[in-house]
């Protein structure tokens, strides 16, 4: 294929994506009239009309739609190949913007941030901690870290951690007053501290291993909070029993501020995922950050194209 055809097809893809000669011309650095002429010449060489033009808009003909779909795939492959070639020369620089839940920030980001920023001094880290799912592309973030409920279905995702053991905990004073639950069913008679993973989501379910299977157990809601960190604090203060990942409460278990119950029934959660929009557009800083997280947690880093359709876990 001649360079002239490559340039014309590249211009066609821009027009097809933006549905505007003016916007496409601005992106390509040419005038709208020059771009329009390029499109007419391409159509003449191909012998088929690709675009429907009006004074206000541009749309694709059936032939244009077919060509656009084929070119998108081809250009993505070309871009990926060029990125792979250049990857070894990339140096992580700029600002890495991460959106994370409270738990993910504490258990995934905090353990690596000092080493990461020391290793890559030209990278600046912006971390936003928020329980609510977010449109990270619209908000300008590079990645989202959380459980699968927080990631959009069209994200590429990598497992940041392996499975994480669940701990059901309460303060010694609470258990002295109310007794220890012996089975998950006993929780119906206890004060349970529950939380939502995000404001628009239902209360986080409590599941236990019973008869060799993971089963959801209905429990009351003596206290409802908007995050597991507050739930742990409430448990320490003696408000009741809460259900969280073991890693969050290990220090409180060692200090005896909290006591574990129902350990033989406690399952493991799925762990945390790092989600990002596209492998091809991943920055060097994000790639190095993910590598360091996986190294720290010794995770296999299995890629998941649609984490929300995985088997349910955390």
UniProtKB/TrEMBL annotation:
Pfam families assigned to the protein according to its UniProt record, in alphabetical order: HTH_1, LysR_substrate
Residue ranges of domain HTH lysR-type in the record: 1-61
Keyword set, alphabetical order: DNA-binding, Transcription, Transcription regulation
Gene Ontology BP annotations: DNA-templated transcription
One MF term in the entry's GO annotations: sequence-specific DNA binding
Gene3D superfamilies named among the record's database cross-references: 3.40.190.290, Winged helix-like DNA-binding domain superfamily/Winged helix DNA-binding domain
InterPro entries: LysR-type_TF_proteobact-type, LysR_HTH_N, LysR_subst-bd, WH-like_DNA-bd_sf, WH_DNA-bd_sf
Superkingdom, natural source: Bacteria
Record family assignment: Belongs to the LysR transcriptional regulatory family.
Classification via PANTHER family: HTH-TYPE TRANSCRIPTIONAL REGULATOR, HTH-TYPE TRANSCRIPTIONAL REGULATOR PGRR
Protein name, as recorded: LysR family transcriptional regulator
């Amino acid at each position: 294929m001649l360079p002239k055809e490559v340039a014309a097809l590249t211009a066609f893809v821009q027009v097809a994506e933006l549905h505007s000669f003016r916007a496409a011309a601005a992106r390509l650095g040419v005038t709208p009239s020059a771009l329009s002429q390029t499109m007419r010449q391409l159509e003449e060489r191909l012998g088929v009309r690709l675009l429907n033009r009006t004074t206000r808009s541009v749309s694709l003909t059936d032939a244009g739609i077919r060509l656009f779909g084929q070119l998108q795939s081809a250009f993505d492959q070309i871009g990926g190949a060029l990125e792979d070639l250049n990857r070894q020369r990339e140096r992580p620089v700029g600002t890495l913007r991460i959106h994370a839940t409270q738990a993910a920030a504490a258990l995934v980001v905090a353990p690596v941030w000092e080493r990461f920023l020391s290793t890559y001094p030209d990278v600046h880290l912006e971390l936003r901690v928020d329980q609510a799912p977010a449109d990270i592309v619209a908000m300008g973030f590079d990645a989202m870290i959380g459980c699968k409920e927080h990631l959009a279905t069209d994200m590429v995702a990598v497992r940041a951690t392996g499975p994480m053991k669940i701990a059901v905990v309460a303060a010694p004073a609470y258990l002295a007053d109310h007794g220890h639950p012996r089975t998950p069913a006993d929780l119906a008679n206890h004060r349970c501290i529950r939380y939502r993973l995000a404001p628009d989501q239902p209360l986080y379910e409590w599941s236990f291993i019973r008869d060799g299977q993971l089963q959801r157990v209905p429990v009351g809601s003596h206290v409802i909070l908007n995050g597991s960190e507050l739930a742990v604090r409430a448990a320490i203060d003696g408000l009741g029993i809460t259900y969280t990942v073991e890693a969050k409460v290990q220090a409180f278990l060692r200090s005896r501020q909290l006591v574990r119950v129902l350990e033989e029934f406690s399952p493991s959660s799925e762990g945390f995922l790092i989600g990002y929009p596209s492998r091809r557009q991943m920055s060097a800083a994000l790639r190095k950050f993910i590598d360091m997280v996986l190294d720290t947690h010794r995770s296999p880093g299995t890629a998941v194209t649609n984490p929300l359709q995985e088997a349910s876990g955390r």
